[in-house]
Every structure is written in C-alpha cells, then in structure tokens.
Amino acid sequence: MSNRVAIVTGGASGIGNAIARRLAADGAAVAILDRNGEAAKTAASKIEADGGDALGVTADVTVRSELDVALEAVKTGLGLPSILVNAAGIVHHGPFLELTLDTWNRILNINLTGQFNVSQAVIPLLVQGGWGRVVNISSSVVHSGAPYLTSYAAAKSGVVGLTKALALEFARDGITVNSVAPGATDTPMFRGSASSGSIDVERIEANVPVGRIGQPDDIAATVAFLVSDEAGYITGQLVGVNGGINT
Questions:
Q1: Would residue 132 be called left, alpha or beta, if left means φ above 0 and alpha means ψ between -120 and 50 degrees?
Q2: CATH no. for residue 50?
Q3: Which of 19, 23, 36, 236 is a plausible cystine mate for 220, CB 3.0–4.6 Å?
Q4: What pTM, to 2 d.p., does this model score?
Q5: Tens of pLDDT along 40-59?
Q6: Does 246 fall in a domain?
Q7: How far apart are CA 204 and CA 199, in angstroms?
Q8: Contact assessment for residue 171 and residue 229, using Cβ atoms and an 8 Å cutoff
Q9: 3-state DSSP call for residue 230?
Q10: Could you list the active site residues?
Q11: Above pLDDT 70, what percent of the chain?
Q12: Is a pLDDT exceeding 80 seen at residue 64?
C-alpha cells in the first residue's frame, strides 16, 4: 500500500486509531481527521515515530467547511487520497421515552450524517484517481438491536443503507464500499460506558462465543483487508467482527 493515501476519521483514539496505525504499518500514508486536533496530531506523530507517514488534521465531520479545509491539507501534505475509513462516532445510552429530539439529532448527525458529509467530499477524489476503497464503521447493534441505544442503533443502521447505495453507484468507477460492524470492543468509548454503569462488561464477555471482548486491532485487521487490492470483488457488504455473538 506504499502508493496509497488513506483518510481515517475519528482516528485519534479507539477503533479509528487502531485502523490508522494498521494502514500506516501496511505502507499507506495516513491522514487522521478528528475534531480533537491536538489528539490527531499526537496520533500522527506516534505513527511517524514508528517509521510511518501520517498527518493529523482538525475536522468535525458534521461541519462541511472544516472538511473542505482538511481535504486541502491532506492533498497538499500527503497527496490524492484513495482510501476512506469513516470511523468517527459517539454513543448515547438511555431509555427511549427519555430521549430528547436534540440528543436524537446529535447522535444521527455525528454517526450517520457525518459519514455522508465525508463520503460526499472524498469520493470525487477517489473517482478522479480511478481507484478507491471506502469502509464505513457501523455496529453489531444493527444485527441484534439493543435496549437503551435507540438513536445509536438507528444511526448505525443508516450507515449500512448508505454503504449499500454507494457501493452500487460507484462500482464502475473502481471504488468498493463496505461496512464493518464491530461487536463489543475495548475502546475508550466502551470503557466510558462501563464506568457509567450503562453496560455490564462481565455479562457481555460471558455471552461472546469466543470468550473475550474484541480489541481495536481486530477491527483494524478486517479494514486492512477490505481496503486492499485483494478485496476488489467485495463491495456493498456488512462484515461483522463480533466474536460470534451475531452470526
């Protein structure tokens, strides 16, 4: 992947950061887009310290003007992107009857509309290059549903529909579009939910057939395959990485 430039949103921490590090290790130049610009720059510095090529850029996926500025920085600093991984996201736990419209809109805006914004900004660059890979991070809740995660489940289900539509629309342009649905994964967001009492880690782990919580590197390995040349005949798919809890 030494001739590829990848953009990873939400790449400063968690699953996004694991993906950024894996793609850099595989030889891609990686642009880390995150609303926490300092964290993005720190993550990029760590990749460069390990011998990779990376750029940290401040960008909120819900603000199109920030994305336009970020893409100019990517093209200037690394070159024309050919890989996009939409990993930015947040979660909200709470009873449905207490869910406010403001919270509903915020969760959908970041998790779903954010992927729309970034994809619409980046895909023309992939078309221009004649080759592209897009991977959208969804969630295993789209398989099973989940109580107290109404807005999150709705947004992540929308990601699957977005993925399938884009896959068909851009297949003849040499672009594949797939979605990865992580199960319970040991990330800062997951640990925050555990600390607040919103989830029971021991109960979740006991229900995973392989007997453990997922690691961000598990997701990164799947993404690394989907963005490779070898995955060129795979598009429009939802790939579950969940230890067998959803089959």
A1: beta
A2: 3.40.50.720
A3: 19
A4: 0.94
A5: 999 999 999 999 999 999 99
A6: no
A7: 8
A8: no
A9: helix
A10: 152
A11: 100
A12: yes
